[in-house]
Write a structure and sequence with these properties.
mainly alpha; 55% helix
């Protein structure tokens, strides 16, 4: 639970403390500041994606894209 993008057939098991630490590190690596999100949008491999595709590829939250009434 919490790791939705493992290849089929893969299994990871962490003790609860290790799982919390790993998930916290992952969350910190996902950009939430607009400058970081905008930088991702300029990357060639992400530039042509739809909004849905961009969110899936980067794990950025929709709320972070629309924060401060941006669109």
């Amino acid at each position: 639970h919490g790791f939705g993008r493992l290849p089929s057939g893969c299994y990871m098991h962490f003790d609860p403390r290790a799982q919390q630490e790993v998930l916290a590190q992952i969350r910190r690596s996902i950009p939430s500041q607009w400058a970081e999100i905008a930088k991702l949008l300029r990357e060639p491999q992400l530039a042509g994606l739809t909004l849905d595709g961009f969110l899936r590829a980067t794990d950025v939250e929709l709320a972070d894209v629309y924060a401060a009434k941006r669109s």
